[in-house]
Design goal:
- Helices cover 39% and strands 11% of the residues.
- It has helices at 39-54, 69-73, 97-111, 127-134, 139-148, 163-171, 190-198, 220-226, 231-240, 259-262, 271-290, 292-297, 314-327, 330-337, 373-384, and strands spanning 5-7, 14-16, 18-21, 59-61, 86-91, 116-121, 152-158, 177-180, 202-205, 247-250.
- The strands form two sheets. Strands 3-4-5-6-7-8-9-10 form an eight-stranded parallel beta barrel, surrounded by six helices.
């Protein structure tokens, strides 16, 4: 089946519903001289791009923070007719507009393109970063200058932040699109997608397979619950069942990684009906494991990590433990939980501090489960705690 496309908000781009993300196939997570790129790695990257384009997946997404990705793409992207590609790169906002411009010039020199279709302010993860990005002479102002010069077509932002920060950035009406997290295993950011829809912004889902549940290495139980689809196929269709969602990032490490995702294309037009029995089965298993009241109300009254003794990230710790017990997603829980304390504003808050659990009820006065949460956190920590895990771009 040919690629399905959706209007990417006010950019008016016809976006493929599957995007070729650029953070898994590159050689290094830092800039390296071109001669250090192994020939087999470069050949694999180019094979990924050529297969993506042949499938109609002509949205190629990368970032300044993805190490050698941009430089390696610069050897293959210019070989395609420029009008056939939708190229996106991302640059972290800086205090200095001049520094942001310098990073953009580095991007373009590596990509060997005259313009990019989409430029994202990368990692707009806090309300303070929103404010910094929008200050006079700052990163957004420089991006606007680049847009007026024709070197950037559309400006958006990417975020791993809390919903309140995402909505704040959206409500400025300064951005044409947003890259954000939302998938079956974490639906907290739906209000941000609704806000983006009101502002006619493109909506791009980040990492639905990795951060969305380590779905390329699912537990046997999750596989059974998602039949006849794969967990990845179910999650793809769960996202695309919503017309407000325009594209999902597929970050390949090899050309065959696309196959499981393109297999769902014939089902996109009937996605809601296809996923309904699987979604009901997953939700029933969660209720069976945790009870109806907890499943419906566990988020009520949870303070953000800044207001918790020891800065414990209650939301993600509880969410990960719920998934581990209901769907045997222990490996995913360990991977994400052990980023706490090492992810900065990309994954904020800390792991459970057993010595501070007795202080928790004081900040849980609005929760119907204030008496239960400390013990649940203790159990989660015992299951997941396995030492440090760093963000890929920090390795």
């Amino acid at each position: 089946m040919s690629m399905i496309r959706r209007r990417f908000g006010r950019t008016e781009l016809q976006m493929p519903v599957l995007t070729c993300g650029g953070m898994r196939y590159q050689h290094a997570w830092k800039d390296v001289p071109p001669e250090e790129i192994p020939a087999e790695n470069q050949a694999n990257l180019e094979a990924c791009i050529r297969k993506a384009v042949s499938l109609g997946m002509n949205h190629i997404e990368t970032a300044r923070g993805y190490g050698s990705s941009e430089m390696q793409l610069g050897s293959v992207l210019p070989t395609f007719p420029r009008e056939e590609l939708i190229v996106q790169t991302k640059i972290g906002p800086k205090e200095s507009g001049a520094e942001f411009r310098e990073l953009f010039e580095t991007c373009m020199a590596y990509l060997k393109l005259e313009y990019v279709d989409l430029l994202s302010l990368h990692g707009v993860n806090t309300e303070e970063i929103v404010d910094m990005s929008l200050k006079p002479g700052g990163s957004l102002a420089v991006a606007r200058e680049l847009q007026r010069s024709g070197r950037v077509r559309h400006i958006g932002f990417s975020t791993h932040g809390p919903t309140r920060a995402i909505v704040k950035a959206i409500e400025t009406d300064e951005f044409d699109y947003v890259n954000l997290h939302w998938y079956f295993m974490d639906q907290r950011n739906w209000p941000a997608i609704e806000a983006a829809t009101r502002h006619d912004m493109g909506v791009f889902i980040i990492s639905p397979n990795d951060k969305g549940g380590l779905l390329y290495k699912p537990s046997d139980k999750l596989v059974r619950l998602c039949e006849p689809l794969t967990p990845m196929g179910f999650n793809d269709l769960f996202c695309l069942a919503r017309p407000e969602v325009h594209t999902l990032s597929i970050g390949p490490s090899r050309p065959t990684d696309f196959d499981a995702h393109t297999a769902i294309l014939p089902l996109v037009d009937k996605a809601a009906a296809t996923i309904a029995p699987i979604k009901a089965r997953l939700e029933a298993e969660m209720v069976k494991t945790w009870g109806a009241e907890w499943t419906a109300r566990w988020r009520e009254g949870l303070p953000e990590w800044e207001a918790v003794p020891g800065e414990v990230n209650l939301y993600h710790t509880l969410r990960l433990y719920m998934l581990a017990r209901a769907y045997d997603m222990v490996e995913y829980g360990k991977m994400r939980y052990n980023l706490l304390g090492n992810g900065g504003h990309w994954f904020p808050g800390l792991k459970v501090d057993d010595t501070l659990l007795d202080q928790l009820p004081a900040c849980l006065g609005e929760s119907p489960f204030a008496d239960k949460i400390p013990q649940i956190l203790r159990e989660a920590h015992e299951l997941f705690n396995a030492g440090e895990v760093k963000r890929l771009s920090s390795t």
